[in-house]
Amino acid sequence: MRLFRVQSLQLQLALSLAALYVAATAIAVAGLVYQAYSTADALSTEDLNRRARHLASLVTVDTAGEYKVELPDWLASLYRSGSFLYAARHPEGKVVAASNAEVADLVSRLPVPGDQPAYFRLRHFGASERDYFGLTAGIESRVGPLWITIARAADDDVLVQSLLREFMFNVAWLVPLVVAATLAIGVVAIRRGLRPLRQASAKAATIEPGSISIRLPEENVPSEVRPLVAAVNQALDRLEKGFAMQRQFTANAAHELRTPLAILTTAIEQLAGSHDVTMLKSDVARMNRLVEQLLRVARLDAIALDVSTPVDLCGIAKDVVAYMAPVALANRRVLAAQGTERQVLVKGNRYAIEDAIRNLIENAITYAPPASEIVVEVDPNGAVKVADRGPGIAVDERNRIFDRFWRGKGSQGQGSGLGLAIVCEIMKAHHGSIEVGDNPGGGAVFTLVFQELHQTTTVWQSG
Fold it and tell me: For 90, 286, 302, 423, which has the most beta carbons within 10 A of its beta carbon?
């Protein structure tokens, strides 16, 4: 059975800190309680010694040489109550005074202690069968050395016990509050200590192929984590270098291919017309389109698009439709624009948006049946739709059609599988999205969704 493991570093530190606080508090409380009871015992012992010395000072010798103890009234009543017991013995062992006969008999049978005080306990002593704690100590008095025995009833320290219980009660409710407050302060301190890590994580989340030059901040990072951050930045340096080499290779390869293809195209145009020449022209046109698309991909990968300029989707859509209309007519398709009467402003790059719409129109021309209509519609909410009457896109292929060089089974035309990938990259650069759905009545609808800047209701006027 696998033990539960906490994945959160902050929670691990908080739990460890809580365990440390609880253990330290338990030790501190145990020490305080022990010290409190030790102090109470020490005070009780000191009280017995003080009473023994006081009692020794009250022993006198009369003219007949007899020892006697003259107790003040308040002290005599205290000993009569049974809360305290006393006895005074001559060094020879004779009891010269005692609180009662039972105490005198008991003390007379006890051995004479040594130089140090002897402590004892009495269980169920006397008629009241009370428990006592006491001591016997040798004390120098004005009548000579005496052995004084003093005992206190065990239930007589009610006040001390009450104070100790009150102390324990106060500790019992105060300690959890102190632990909770300390733990809360600790958690806040941990969160502040981990703030650089959260900032580095937020920075890392923004890194993508188009912004691979971003690096994680190393300042204010804890020294324990700084080597990890530095290693990640070094890995990003290597990745950026690899991406740059790959992009440069793609751009160079595409650029180098343009010149021989242009020469080849010119040479083929000069050949006499035949079926083979027509096939060669088609192949060369396809290669020219592929090279042009590779250059577009390389530019998109290598250069960050400036998408901060306000542009009008309606104007862009009208220009692209006007530009592509002859191509559509040459391929026996009808190209129309809708919703372009009003401005729809978004932040973006005009040339990249033109490229995206043109790619969608070219794709629609390729797959739409002859004599069908292709509609480019601008939505007032900041979207451009390109709808055709082609075979549509299968649901299970809609997540793959934007992959580079991917072509579905049974694809028509001589495309390279880069057109929709270029459109997808352009929309990512604009922080927008591209959606594909079914066109009512048959076909597919591609929707470019932009972040709308604002729109006006100004109607376009010709002339």
Answer: 423
Which residues are bridge partners to 325 per DSSP? Answer: none
Structure token pair of residue 158? 């009610």
**Domain CATH number, residue 432:** 3.30.565.10
Task: Tell me the HSE value of 47 on the side-chain side, using a 13 A CA sphere.
Answer: 15
Report residue 376's pLDDT band, with 50, 70 and 90 as the boundaries: very high
Give the chain's radius of gyration (CA, Å): 50
CA dihedral 226, 228, 231, 236 (to 10 degrees): -100
In one letter, which amino acid is 15?
L
* pTM (two decimals): 0.44
Q: Count of CB atoms within 10 A of residue 133's CB?
A: 19
- On whether both 415 and 336 belong to a single domain, the answer is yes
CA 119, CA 125: separation in Å to the nearest integer? 16
Dig out the tokens for 371 from the structure: 């004599």
Amino acid at 256: E
Residue 1 CB contacts under 8 Å (≥ 6 apart), including other chains: none
Tell me the C-alpha distance between 89 and 139, whole Å.
11
Rounded to 5 degrees, φ, ψ at 225 are -100, -15
One-letter amino acid of 87: A
Contacts of residue 175, defined as CB under 8 A and 6 or more positions apart, other chains included, come to 25, 29
Measure the CA–CA gap between 320 and 316, rounded to whole angstroms.
6
How far is the CA of 84 from the CAs of 45, 50, 158, 347, 461, in angstroms? Answer: 13, 13, 14, 97, 117
Overall average pLDDT of the 313-330 stretch: 90
| pLDDT exceeds 90 at position 446 | yes
Range of the domain at 243: 231-302
Domain total for the chain?
Answer: 3
> Could you tell me what percent of the chain has a pLDDT over 70?
76
Residue 90 has pLDDT above 60, yes or no: yes
Q: What is the pLDDT of residues 19-60, one digit of tens each?
A: 887 788 778 878 877 887 787 778 888 888 898 888 888 888
Angle at 457 between CA 451 and CA 460, to 5 degrees: 105
Binned at pLDDT 50, 70 and 90, residue 461 comes out as very low
Residue 205 within any structural domain of the chain: no
Residues 314 and 453 reside in one and the same domain:
yes
pLDDT score for 29? 78
Q: Name the band, by pLDDT with cuts 50, 70 and 90, for residue 3.
A: very low
The pLDDT tens digits of the residues spanning 291-313 come to 666 666 665 655 556 777 899 99
Q: Compute the distance between CA of residue 229 and CA of residue 231 in angstroms, rounded to an integer.
A: 5
- What is d(CA 242, CA 66) in angstroms, rounded to the nearest whole number? 114
CA 106 to chain centre: 74
